[in-house]
């Protein structure tokens, strides 16, 4: 992986995490089972990392 690809992936992960955390703070409604949410977040971040 070259530097540009690594930076792009890091930016995508940053935007994703910021979006999820903002959503949880601004619209504090239930997002479902916490274990399911954690599994989905983990899988999504891993896909963004791996490409």
UniProtKB/TrEMBL annotation:
Superkingdom of this protein's organism: Bacteria
Protein name, per record: TetR family transcriptional regulator
Source lineage: Bacteria, Bacillati, Actinomycetota, Actinomycetes, Kitasatosporales
């Amino acid at each position: 992986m070259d530097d540009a690809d690594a930076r792009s992936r890091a930016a995508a992960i940053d935007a994703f995490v910021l979006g999820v955390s903002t959503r949880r703070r601004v619209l504090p409604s239930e997002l479902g089972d916490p274990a399911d949410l954690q599994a989905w977040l983990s899988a999504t971040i891993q896909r963004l990392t791996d490409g």
